[in-house]
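Entry 14. Two folds queued back to back today. First construct below, sequence then structure tokens.
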Amino acid sequence: MSQITLPVQTKTKRRLAFLFSIPLAFSLVFFGVDVAAEHTDIELMKIRTVYGAVVAVRALAHDAESGERGFLLTGNDRYLMPLEGDKLLLDARLSNCVEAATGRPEVEPQVRKLIDLVKKRFGETNAVLNIQRTQGLPAAVYSVRSGESEHTMDEIRTTTAAVLKELDREASRYDDRERKLYRRTFAFYTASTLIVIGVLAWLYHELVSYLTARDAALAELERLNADLEARIAERTHDLTEANEELKQFAYVASHDLQEPLRTITSFSQLLEARYKGHLDEDADEFIGYIVTSARRMTGLINGLLTLARLRRTGQRVEPVSFEKLLQEAEISLQASIRESGAEVLHGPLPELVVDQVQFCQVLQNLISNAIKYRREEPPKIRIEAYRDSSSWVFSVRDNGRGFNQEFAERIFGLFQRLHPGGVDGTGMGLSIARKIVTRHGGRIWAESQEGVGSTFHFSLPVSLESSRGRKSKETSAPVMQA
């Protein structure tokens, strides 16, 4: 299923990322357009401000000219009187005009020239008023008719027209720029909209394909699960049948095989007892082979029966002292210990909730191995135990032959023997020990050096301590099954 969906998911994620990047691009572009448009609007506003200020200043000059003409036509100085009260207005408008034109090099020099001309024109009007007051109306009329004021007004009109023309050209340039900006924005918006529509259609198609592939993968997964469940059921049935066959084999081994084997052993021993020494040496040797093989076969069958019983029996939840188990194992091995001169020592050993018979067998097998695989010197065996945070760790150390460490795992296999020559045994003792320790939640391993000795370790969980075991027994009384 992962092979089908992962590439589709990756493509879908990329397309979604591309789709969501388009609005971000829109936002950035529209933000830039908005900033540019705002800048253009501000510039146009400044141009209009300058334009209005220039027109206002020109209007003041026309007012001055109209006042003079009214005064010349009627002789009534009331046409000049309003000009005397417009000084503050004149200064304010002239100042506004200069301020608006400041920073615009294309019109600023001409605006300043226009301001000077307007001031000059108002100066000429004030001169006419002064002449009228001091020399009379005829002298004032004569002063106006001299043409100096008319020449100033012509310059004002020419300068004003030039400034306004330049401002119109500048405003037109900004208007064109703004129109181009909006046209490009509209084109970008149209293209982006088409892209979004295409990506949405693309994404929809891929989403439908993904859902179809997912449904197909789920159907395939369900089919595979059903097939796997059928295989598991079949395998379970096979294992159940195999287990029944093993049970049947154990039954045959304990009943059908034991009886003829006892007969062979009994008659071969009887033959050895009656005729040993009465026949030739070859006959004595052959009889010895028969007796030895019969005994070995008996040992093998008993070992297999022990393994079979381990699978069927449960663990009795009772606290057992390992010191007591060690004493029982020594009693069982008393003949071997006396014959080999072995010395068995031990440190403090705990009390744990284990199967007494099974762990007595574990200690017996480990001590028996240490005696069997001894060197010329008498064997020294040391049993110790210590507790860590999670388990009790036992060790059985000897000074025997030892073995190569690379075989430390192999020796726990069924029928595995590293020193087959001259040593009795079936090769099942360590395999049985591992089975027992594993059933109790622990593990077993070995460390060795050839010619120095071996140390067998096995660990058991601290939950098997007697105080915890009693509490567990009172609450739930568990029974461990193989």
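Second construct, same run, same settings:
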Amino acid sequence: MMPLRWDDLRLFVAVVHKGSFSAAARQLRVGQATLSRRIAELEEQIGEAVFERDQRGIRLTAAGEKLLPAAERMAEWAHQAEQNMSVHPHLPEGRVRIAAPPGIAFELLAPLSAKIRQQFPALSLEILSGLDILNLGRGEADISLRTIRPTDEDLICIDELRVLMAIYAAPSYADTLNADITIDQLDWICWAESQDDLFVNQALKAMIPNFRAAFSSDDFLVQLSACWSGLGAMVLPKAYHRYSILPHLTEIALPLGSEAVGNLYVVVHKRHRYLPKVQCVLDFLREEFNHVRAQTEP
């Protein structure tokens, strides 16, 4: 197959983003017939259709889905090249998608995004909160915060944080505990049975025979709300970043064992590493990681 032409890929990305050939043609100021012909030439070169057309408009085929992430990255680099060559350089702009576990997304990324936007208002931040690991190579996110170090050689670990895990509860609950209470006597808040393979549940089951939670949920925010309400105790990372909820909770000084250590890795795909908008967000994350390390790293 001959090398794909950037001009054709630019037209392809525009059609995807605008949702129709007519809207893309207006944005690019080309005739719709010309646009359709160029897309047809691209499909002929690939050997497969990239769009399916019906009464509701267009949608990507499997070949189009496969082509889109790389084409979007090329568009980002082309846009950045234009900015770099401009007589009047611009601040980083565009959308940055950050994937993270629910607790990190809620406690760290949401408030950190406000700080980033104050300094770089042209950035649009999208936080993808969940337990599944998104595929950076397919463009599902630009940055990923993970609890497991990546093994894919195309992924780069920009920074990592290692912190102790500890037991926390609302002051109203902690005040009811006797000084000689043991770990198996606490009212535990943890993940629901559907997430039973996660570290917290496995650690509690290893420490407490016939473990049974007082409250469980498949949603971290629901667990946290239960903890704040004084329902029981939770295992949380002992990471005192600038937006930490931990100062509002009471640490219960019971041992969790030497294995109770949490890891967090900042991961990017190597082709996104030097995009200015991505570097900007990475700088804020590194600054916050350094702040935590200065206080809490074991």
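Quick look at the second one. The longest helix spans residues 62-84. The mean pLDDT is 85.
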